[in-house]
Design a protein that fits this description.
about 20% helix, alpha/beta, 2Fe-2S, transport, FAD, 2 domains, Dihydroorotate dehydrogenase electron transfer subunit
Length: about 280
């Protein structure tokens, strides 16, 4: 299931899994890593770009009502292993942060589609900020295993927030780091950098996640390079995660016909050139 044309619904084998919390720890002051062991071999059916709905626990301070959508950070090598990297920021994730190793969590998925990727690519360019690095980490792994060269433009507030090691997870890449703290992550500076990289390296595909500002910038830059595959894994608030509640619809340009599509069902991966609108989603 790769990024689909406008209006094409993705079929997925979706189930609920009871998982044991095998590992759970702070990566830095904002992000936590959690490794779950499911009661079934889910790693083989989970693809880069997909997500799960997680049932966060109820605590004395936090009572999350809805399941929380979370992109897959890693799956395998064990058949029942799945990993998430998340920003502890709201009611659900604050409650989730209290889970102890040895405890349990229920998850539903895998949901959504995956990135378009070919082992015949020579090089890919990934542009990530914030939680976007967790979403694209499985794609980095796939490209590395296929011997495809990787260029990673990583944007963060400061060097302390970058998490380069967590993003690459041992993969070799040409990393370009930009920060809010020194102004190198500004739209103007990023546009110069991205145009230089594309001109010099001629990537076969460009991927992004985690920032609406970067999405709009890439859409503008890539209009000059129509042959490059360009995709975004969209971050959007969701309720059901299965396309029923329509809370995650976004506007897309489908061959000149504008349509509202569900990020959870027709996405979350979409062609960058089809995204319409200036509404912030991450």
């Amino acid at each position: 299931m790769s990024a689909s044309p406008c209006g094409v619904e993705n079929a997925a084998i979706v189930a609920s899994y009871r998982c044991k919390v095998a590992e759970h720890y702070w990566v830095n002051q904002r992000y936590k890593y959690i490794r779950l062991e499911a009661d079934a071999p889910i790693a083989r059916i989970t693809k880069a770009g997909q997500f799960y709905q997680l049932k966060c626990p109820t605590t004395l301070e936090h009572e999350p009502f809805l399941l929380r959508p979370m992109s897959v950070y890693g799956a395998g090598p064990e058949d029942n292993r799945i990993e998430f990297l998340y920003n502890v920021t709201g009611v659900g994730t604050k409650a989730m942060a209290t889970l102890l190793e040895g405890g349990h969590m229920d998850i539903v998925g895998p949901l959504g589609n995956t990135f378009t990727f070919s082992a015949n690519y020579r090089r890919i360019l990934v542009v990530a900020r914030g939680v976007g690095l967790a979403t694209m980490a499985p794609l980095i792994k796939e490209a590395s295993q296929a011997g495809v060269d990787i260029t990673a433009v990583m944007s963060a507030r400061s060097p302390a927030d970058l998490m380069e090691k967590e993003f690459l997870r041992g993969a070799t890449a040409d990393v370009r780091s930009v920060f809010d703290a020194d102004g190198t992550s500004s739209v103007e500076a990023m546009e110069v950098l991205l145009r230089e990289l594309i001109e010099q390296q001629r990537p076969d595909a460009v991927y992004t996640c985690g920032s609406h500002r970067l999405l709009m910038l890439l859409q503008r830059v890539l209009s000059d390079y129509p042959r490059i595959t360009a995709e975004v894994a969209m971050e959007q608030r969701m309720a059901c995660g299965m396309g029923v509640c329509l809370s995650c619809v976004r506007l897309f340009d489908c061959d000149g016909d504008r349509k509202f599509l569900r990020v959870c069902r027709e996405g979350p991966v979409f062609p960058i050139r089809e995204v319409v609108g200036e509404v912030e989603f991450g």
